[in-house]
Amino acid sequence: MKQNSETKYITYHNMFWLFMMGNVLGVILEGGWCLIRTGHWETHVVSMWGPFCIIYGVGAVGFYLGSVWLKNRKVITQFFVFSLIAALVEYICSWILEYGLHMKAWDYSRHFLNIEGRVSLKMTVMWGVLGIVFSYFLIPLINKIFVRMQGKLWHTACVCMSVFMAVNLIFTAMCLVRWKNRQEGMPPQNYMERMIDKTYDNHKMERRFCEWSFIEEKEKLR
Predict the structure, then answer these.
(1) 104 has which bridge partners?
(2) What is the pTM of this model?
(3) Burial group, residue 112, by CB count within 10 angstroms (0-12, 13-18, 19+)
């Protein structure tokens, strides 16, 4: 059986760098969209350190894997799979934010045919279209980038950045949990929480996560 030519590129090293590229490009794309829509730039990140929106990083890896596995499928099949997977990821992330942190980072409740404001027909179709564009137009370019990003230096950088991102995301989770606990009036319990309160107070968190808000606050504004 002939091996799909793209499967040879599915390694941790390549997928990590694709994840990182997606993180940064996601911030640029959302910032550009805000500039077009509202006239001012907004930096939408999902980490405490660096210009990283990890939802886009995960999406880039997911689109790549889906493109490889669905390469010989019909375009309509690929569209539906990309749409459903993206909608599922959005729904799960929204659910975790709401029930884990009592927060929302997006709200599609005004969109036609939405589910609890977490996903909507409009966004689901958009993700499906983006998946098709990614599959047919970006995969060749990405594979060329993978070929160039080889060698000892890139692999060493991959290890270092992997450690950095692991620490970054763990610390981000700690800051988000502490932000939620402050909102609920819970005092710091240890040195780390006191340090977080001092360094990343509510004002800094609101600036860093500019689209995020506590559900209670959103309800008061309605």
Answers:
(1) 213
(2) 0.87
(3) exposed
